[in-house]
Design brief:
One of its GO terms (cellular component) is cell outer membrane. Pfam families: PapC_C (PF13953), Usher (PF00577). One of its GO terms (molecular function) is fimbrial usher porin activity. The protein is mainly β and 322 residues long. It folds into three domains: 142 residues, Porin; 95 residues, Immunoglobulin-like (Sandwich); 80 residues, Sandwich (Immunoglobulin-like). The protein is built from three helices and 27 strands. Strands 1-2-3-4-5-6-7-8-9-10 form a ten-stranded antiparallel β-sheet. Strands 20, 21, 24 and 27 form a four-stranded mixed β-sheet that branches. The longest helix is centred in the first third of the chain and has 5 residues.
Length: 322
Amino acid sequence: YNNYKNINDLNLASSFYYKGISFSLGLNSQSSYNEEEANNSVYFNTSIPMSFFYNAGINTPLNEKINDISYGLSTDLKGDSSSQLGIDGSLNNENHLTYGLNINKYKKSSGISVNINNNNNYGSQGLMFGKDYNGYNINFNATGGMIYYNSNIILGQPIYNSSALIEVNDAKNIKVTNESEVKTNKSGFAIIPTLNDYRSNRIALDPESYPNNVDIAMPIINVVPTVDSIVLAKFNAKIGYKALFKLHYKKGIIPFGASVNLLGDNKISSMVSTDGSVYLTGLPENGKLNVEINKNESCKAGYHLSNNETKKTVIVKGLLCQ
């Protein structure tokens, strides 16, 4: 109850919750010395999360697209009323693309507004469309951050205080576990927008997001930034396919301990195991292997990886060394 400058305002309200659903019911009465009759109104509001239906075992396609439904109704007990229906949810499983829908009605007029927001690797973008008795309105907004590094322009989420620039040499679409929206762009760069100053910050890549032709031996880096600094977190990625080649030559299987390297790139090398197989990473689609069996004997084996083979995590293939 409130009394201010001869205006009496009385409000009674009650609310309760049941398994995430909220309800509220209220009565408002307002009167003043120069009005013969008080202005009375009754209102009702409720909000229902879709998790209520999921927990109750009621599964529909809408459960994945709608997060909450809200409804409000108010009447002055004289025939005039207003109502509002609100729905918000997500259009994808990762909740990066969200939307909101509001429909309201007051007396004989009505209005509707729709907004869509996209939080992604390049920042946040929003679009809003509205219509009411005054007409139409459309708004667009975008926020984000940008870093210029080694002739590269890297876009990302808005940068606050200290941040990190991730470099994974030309490995694209690799997710960063620190931020759900962050993944490397086509040049292998990404931005972590917020770090803790003067503390060790753990930056980790998600191995499940690696393409089949990318291998990163150390997917975790710790960085310690100063105030408002940008630190470089560089991961050494080996770009190429992973293959287990089973090598044969004129005498049978290649013997254990033979050394194998890719012609033209000695960094791609390994040793033959007891069953004549060799595991190599960072391979191009086509190449030739040099096999040193002993000081006096060597051979070469060419290979070609088909489109179906390049879709596999590890390619298993037999080769003849001549």
